Structure formats: C-alpha cells, structure tokens
Amino acid sequence: MSANLEFEQFRTFLEKSCGILLGSNKQYLVSSRLNKLMEQNGIKSLGELVNRIQTLPRSGLREQVVDAMTTNETLWFRDSYPFEVLKQRVLPELIKSSGGQRLRIWSAACSSGQEPFSLSMTIDEFERSNPGQLKGGAQIVATDLSGSMLTACKNAEYDSLAIGRGLSPDRLQRYFEPRGTGRWGVKAPIKSRVEFRALNLLDSYAALGKFDVVFCRNVLIYFSAEMKKDILKRIHATLKPGGYLFLGASEALNGLPELYQMVQCSPGIIYKVK
To answer: What contacts 164, CB < 8 A, 6 or more positions away?
Structure first.
C-alpha cells in the first residue's frame, strides 16, 4: 500500500475514533506525534499501525494513538475576555434566575486542565468581589477523551513553562503552592470545585446532567461541518433554558438559529440558548 493510501486509512480511523478530521497535508503532524509510539511497538508504517489496532483491539494501542493525536497544551485564561464576560455579565444574570441553586459549568475537551482551573479561579474572583451572591456555589465538570491528560489534570501540578502561559504573578501567588523545584500545584479550594470525567465528544452526554454554561472552545475546528452541527445540537440539549455557550475566538456558530441566539459582548461573542 502506498504512503498516501496508508495516510488516508489513518485519517478515516481517527475520524471514526474521536471525530478529528485531519487535513490531507498533515502527514508531518502524524509523523511527529506517532514516531516514538510506532518505534516502541516495532511498527514500520501507518497501514501496519491501523491493522494492528483492528486485529488487537484490547492492546491499548488505539487509546495511545488517539491520546497522542489529541493532546494539546493550552493556556491559562485563554483570550481572557470569555472569563471576564462570565464574571461581569453571565454570572450575575444566572444568579438572578437560578433561585440560589448551584450553578454548573461544563469545560468540554479540557486538555491539560488550564481552562477548568481558570474557570474555578474566575468563580473565586467573582465571590471575592460579590460576597454572598453565589449562594449555591458552582461546580465545574471538565471532560476529555485522553486518559493521560485526565490523570495529569487530577494531579493539578504544572511546571514553570506551563505556568508561564497566561498566568499573572498575582494569580500564581493566590491560587498555587510550590511543589519542589520549578513545579506548582493548584490549591485545594480551586481544585475541589472541578470534577474531571472521561468523555469522547462523539458519545452521549446524558450522564453529565444539565448545565448553565458550556465552554467548548477551540475544539470544533477539528471536526467536519456535519459532526460540528451534531455536537452543537447535543450541547444545546445539556444546557438549561437561558444557559450560555462559549466557543473559541476563531470559531463561529453558523446555522442553528432556532437553538442559539448570538450575544455581542465587545469583545467577543457568546451564544444564549433559545
């Protein structure tokens, strides 16, 4: 089988496994992410890799490959404005309509944990500025399909390089504690607000329950238009009436006007459930 055909076979496997649609020019990305894994398993080509996964489904190789292809390091308070909009506009509005109930936020495809912990810090900052308002508190459910990422998230420990990506000195001092040379751990009150769960966005969301806010940022760019639409419809089903969806800065919700209403926030756009 030619290298191009093997790459096409791998692209099909990846889309079926986790929805990610690789561009036809992404051979270099696949090589850089899978070379080590293939070497360790004595696999010489992508065709052999896909064949091995299909003939030995319980070997754990499928999970390792999906893990390697979906793992992304991310930033604290990425783009900053979504967290400010949440704090200044969305939380006060939801508190008025919640009747004192606990607010629930879903961080979908949470990667290495920076987004859900940034959300937890945002909740803390809101409570400090508005004591007694968030009577029921808030719970953040963070999901990812990568087992290794979720293990790292639960450990809630970061090196200096990861800490330097978007975290202010003030927040570092307030919300982290040193854990040996060049490592920092998220403090217990911030950590305890976040619950991590394994979830493939192609699977059912029913077990997650209902949410007031969903952050699904910088994820949908990896899916086909059809799959993206399906995910957005199913996210809508998890949102309570009047709930909000936050997408990435470069993502737009094209279509589905019957489900979501665009809200201009200057800067940024968020989507309210109809």
So the answer is: none
